[in-house]
Amino acid sequence: MNNEPHDHEKCLKLFRKLSEYIDRELDDASCREVEHHICQCEPCQACLETLKKTIELCKNMDDQPVPAAFSSKLRGLIRSVT
Amino acid sequence: MIKNPVTRQIKDNDGELIRAINDGKIDKFQDLVKRYEHRLYNFGLKMCGNVQDAEDMVQDTFLNVFRYLKDFRYETKFKNWMYRIATSTCIKKRRKSKFAPDRELSLEEFLPKDESEFNTELPFWAAQPLDKLLNAELAGHLKNAVVDLPEKYRVVFVLRDIEGFSTVETAEILNLSAANIKVRLHRARLFLRDQLKEYFKDE
Ligand SMILES: [Zn+2]
Q1: CA of residue B144 to ligand 1 center, whole Å
Q2: Domain range for residue B63?
Q3: Tens of pLDDT, residues B65-118
Q4: Could you say which of B14, B133, B150, B151 would form a disulfide bridge with B78 (CB–CB 3.0 to 4.6 Å)?
Q5: ipTM, 2 dp
Q6: How far does the centroid of ligand 1 lie from the alpha carbon of residue B106, in Å?
Q7: What is the pTM of this model?
Q8: Nearby residues of A24 by Cβ (< 8 Å), 6 or more positions away
Q9: Does A26 contact chain B (CB < 8 Å)?
Q10: Rounded to whole angstroms, how far apart are CA atoms A33 and A44?
Q11: Which of B10, B13, B6 is nearest to B32 (CA)?
Q12: Residues B119 and B185 placed together within one structural domain of the fold
């Protein structure tokens, strides 16, 4: 833990923008503001990293194969209407 | 009003196939099924949470695409148009089933209440490489967490983070504003992050 005075309001403001920051959807000024705060605030760094890891895990979940029986049923159905 | 057809052209990998089908090569519709059944099925699994509903959704979506393809105006990507149909098919399906009413996720429930709740230390799982972390058990846990998301957040999360649509595309598919998409996506991600924290809390 560091002992520097910690501006909790800044953290809360940043918390709302984290997804936009990760998605690079913030304008340059807001982006710089986020980066400026984050590089000196460990709790917000932890917040950002856990959120990034969450997204990364979700994006890498395995797909399921289409059940073969359903796939052939679907093709049959499409053949009957086309 | 005179519209310049050139400016309305959009790049669409499916454009050629769709035009062929609409020009009468109806048997090519099977190519469309082949192209999208896998993606739509997985979209259905995440949206509906079970195989039977996912299969029904895929079938109904293709039938609706077939029925309305003549009305497709080439002003948007075909894929986005198809997902619009898929999404409303999912939502209709859930309305019919006995799911609890959708609840709102407020940002406040994810906010650290005061500084003491702010975790300074990075939890170990956030620092682990993906391949060390993602096993079948965690994937199962995550899938359940996605299904537990209230629908209006889940649909945004799945379109954005799983299917890879942009904010603007997702807004178009769901007929919502981009700002609304961003708000819902952020809350959905925070919800999932809380589920992960819970999963890892004893480690
Ligand atoms: Zn902070």
Answers
A1: 31
A2: 5-96
A3: 999 999 999 999 999 999 999 999 988 776 666 555 678 888 888 876 665 666
A4: B14
A5: 0.90
A6: 20
A7: 0.90
A8: A31
A9: no
A10: 13
A11: B13
A12: yes
